[in-house]
Design goal:
157 residues; mainly alpha; two-stranded parallel sheet; 7 helices; 57% helix
């Protein structure tokens, strides 16, 4: 599945917001449980393979639990921090990872790096294009992900 340009633009805008103005967003989300829930629900809807029907992938209890974890631990702001620090060059770019690495691409995820791109930095020993799933693959497609992980580690016993 190729993501339409609008979805790609939305992901770019999200990254830009996080890289440049993450604190602005943090204040609003840390001050309003309704705002936090709306933000998270929108991400789950946009970044999952739900076809616009959020309840086909996530229960209300699951979504409320995710929002509660951020709200009660006051961690939405700190979850944005790595984006900002990386953009400001406060953390170093990874030059090379030599340990065997697996990449599982789920069609509704935000990015779809070609294998050649991933191999510039990582020692790719398994590269799988999944038939379905999105950014939250561990919840959306646990069996597909578990099978891929099993096969990856089987090759490295």
């Amino acid at each position: 599945m190729v993501r339409p340009p609008v979805a790609r633009d939305a992901a770019d805008r999200y990254l830009h917001q996080q890289n440049t103005r993450s604190l602005t967003l943090s204040y609003g989300l840390a001050d309003s449980p309704t705002g936090l829930l709306a933000w998270l629900v929108e991400k789950y809807r946009a970044w999952s393979d739900c076809g616009g029907n959020l309840s086909s992938r996530f229960s209300d209890d699951f979504l409320l639990t995710q929002a509660s974890l951020y709200w009660f631990t006051h961690t939405i702001s700190t979850s944005f921090r790595p984006y900002y620090e990386y953009a400001q060059r406060l953390t170093r770019r990874v030059e090379r990872v030599n340990v065997p690495t697996a990449v599982a691409l789920f069609p509704a995820d935000l990015t779809q790096p070609p294998r050649s791109w991933a191999e510039r930095t990582y020692n790719i020993t398994r590269y799988t294009r999944m038939p379905r799933g999105g950014h939250f693959a561990a919840h959306e497609e646990p069996e597909l992900l578990a099978h891929d992980l099993t096969e990856f580690f089987r090759a490295h016993r």
